Structure formats: C-alpha cells, structure tokens
Amino acid sequence: xxxxxxxxxxxxxxxxxxxxxxxxxxxxxxxxxxxxxxxxxxxxxxxxxxxxxxxxxxxxxxxxxxxxxxxxxxxxxxxxxxxxxxxxxxxxxxxxxxxxxxxxxxxxxxxxxxxxxxxxxxxxxxxxxxxxxxxxxxxxxxxxxxxxxxxxxxxxxxxxxxxxxxxxxxxxxxxxxxxxxxxxxxxxxxxxxxxxxxxxxxxxxxxxxxxxxxxxxxxxxxxxxxxxxxxxxxxxxxxxxxxxxxxxxxxx
Length: 252
Fold this sequence. Notes:
Layout: H1 11-26, E1 30-31, H2 32-39, H3 43-55, E2 59-61, E3 67-70, H4 72-83, H5 87-102, E4 105-112, E5 115-122, H6 143-151, H7 155-165, H8 170-186, E6 189-196, E7 199-207, E8 213-222, H9 233-248
Antiparallel strand pairs: 1-3, 2-3, 4-5, 4-8, 6-7, 7-8
Helix pairs in contact: 5-9, 6-8
C-alpha cells in the first residue's frame, strides 16, 4: 500500500521566506533583535540570512536606524504577479467545470466603479433567458450584489449600496443588513428571481490573499433547481471549487 511521502524541500529557503513573512505579518520595519526574537533563528545564522536577503533586494536595511524593511525586489515580483493575474482567463475553466457538473448557467461578476457587472458567462446546454449578458450591471438584491455588499468595503461600494438601499423600506433595510451578516459567515448568497420570473441564483465569493473580493461566481437557473442554502450537493461543490480558486489568488 502506497503512503503519501512528504516532498523534498530546501529548509534554508523556507527559513528565508519565513523571515520575509515575519516582516509582512508585523506590518512595520523590524530591528535585528526583534526578528531574532520572533523567528527564533540563532544570531549567527540570522546575520547570514539578513545579509543574503538584503543583497538580493528582498530586504532593505536602514543604516541609521538599523531596521529592516521589505525590499524593492518584492514590489517588482508583486507587480509581475498582478500583471499576469488575468481574472477572467483564470476563472473561466472553473466556470466551465461548474456548469458541466451542475448543468446550470454560471456567471463571473466583478466590481466596477459604479456597481457589479457580469464579466463572463458559461451557459448550460439548454436555453435559458437569465435577463442579462456580459457587461450588464447587477442590482444590489441580486445574489452577486448581496455578496459584493457583504465582502467589498471600498468607498464606492458603500456609496452604491447606500443609493440602492434608498429604494427599500426601513424593515427591508434591516432585514438586508442581517442577511449580509449571514453571507459573511457562510460565504453563500441567494436571491429569488431578481431579474427574470422563475429564474433565481446563488453566489459564492472569490477572495485573494488580503481576503478581498476578486469576484463572485453565480449559479443561475430555474428557481426550483437553485438551492437556497449550503446544505445541498450543488452548493457544496460550487463552494469547494471557489475555495480552490481563491487559493490560487493567495487566499487561505
């Protein structure tokens, strides 16, 4: 019987990255003694690691204060990663797989400066009028809109949400805010027939390493086919798929 053997790794590389991650976690420059205390690395070895990381541009040492900062090389690496981060092309294979598995239409929606829009659609094999197309804006009370209101915290989202809420009664606003709290806990948003009669949807988030919303994966279909809760095979499959997708954007 085969056993899962641990993959061979380079321990010194792990240690070097751990030093960088320590500075990231602390969110401020650190002195040698602070890094040594936080990492537990011996002084003689820590000198070597810090000298190497500084020489490579991964760290920068302020000679006056003696503190270590994250280096400019990390910014270069980060920009390169962001530049290759084509959200639509990365997400599309997942949309295709989810649609094939669920036999339902799947959307990718993303936030723009004045509201969420549909960025891509992978349709099921049968014809279905979902009431929208690529580039169409989605309302606050759609499952995508609720998800964005729950997870996106920028000023333009707040302004959009405030304007949309003016259309609701006080009781509806209170109910909506309570629903957002549930969405944040469950990573699941449901909306019954927000655009077209007899067509409902549920959405789950794609998150990045900052736990910020990259986009929403939305499942659309006839109301009787769309689950209202997480306690279904379809919901669990979609959530598992988007968690995997979020991990590719650095989410844990």
